[in-house]
Amino acid sequence: MHAPGLTRRHRPFLAPIWLAALIPLAVVLAGLALLRTATTTTVVIARNAESVLGGIADPPLVADGEHRAERLAHMLAGTPGSLGRIVAVYVLASRRTQQTVAPLAGQLNLAPIVISDRDSGTLAQRILSAHRGESVFVMGYASSVAPLIRALTGRSPSPVREDDYGAVYVISVPPLGSAGVVQMHY
Q: How far apart are the C-alpha atoms of 91 and 73, rounded to whole Å?
């Protein structure tokens, strides 16, 4: 005769062991997600508003361009101390770009940083190293927007049309993974 308890096979109850293994994994994954969002750099890129067409070497904005510049400032200025507030404004060295960004820089109480459009890669690295985890704004020309997006994301966007003054690109560059791009119009 066998003892009644010895004839059956008993499997040990392993749920506490599995649960103990899953908790540290969940904590690590949550920490990585928090790190990713806490240090994601956001770059907002727009091109200059409507300017005088013709033979002027450095044309000023027209009335429609001035109104568009005000709309852009209203859209991006946010409130003081708000999450994701723009901390730096970069602008190409022309009258039309500086006039377009002036209302935004004024509302943010920031002095625009005048840059050259010669090397998008250098500008992208400057932004990513100097403003890690922050939000910055870059005002460029139609011809300078796509190269800067490419330098920040590694992807080639379609070129900005010469008649598309309302395009705004919001680029999120996380420390791990690939960058994302959202295109909006204002």
A: 14
